[in-house]
Amino acid sequence: MMPIGPLMKEHRLIERMVALMERELRRLNDGEEFDPGFVDVAVDFVRTYADRCHHGKEEDILFRELAKKRLSDEHRKTMDELMEEHVYGRAITGQLSSAKERYVLGDAQALATVVASLQDLVGFYPAHIEKEDKRFFVPCMEYFSRQEQEEMVQDFWEFDRRLIHEKYAATVERLE
Length: 176
What we know:
With 176 residues, the chain is mostly helical. The protein has five helices and no strands. The chain has helices at 4-29, 36-67, 73-104, 110-140, 146-175. Helix 1 runs antiparallel to helix 4 and helix 2 (36-67) packs across helix 5 (146-175). The chain is globular and about 55 Å long. 20% of the residues are buried.
């Protein structure tokens, strides 16, 4: 299995969540009542699955290994762009979370920021995923031997195995 297989599979689940965010935007634009619980779930999904799990594997494993290779200027530029996009996604998710909290505390104006943040995420993820799927992941596998690719897949599985423990240890520490 090529290391990009698990990453591309994760993209499909992220796309499904983006579709749910689009549905929520349509509801809000149709004047339906805001559901702060949906935003809580969406923020948790983006922070834990899309960012910490998926982007974590890219940054901590794939990009780290690619940084050791002599990349073409185009691939190096694209990798740098992808890392910047990850930072952007984190910032928008933070804005969404903060705006939801302000709304729940009585700031009705914050709903506009919730909507804008959801729109930003819905616009961001499809373009980001397409760049990775079509312009980056597949051509970058040429830099790795079959053995290096297999080792990366093992690193991805180990990363996933540790993630749930990391998430819930942090939850308990925060509550303590």
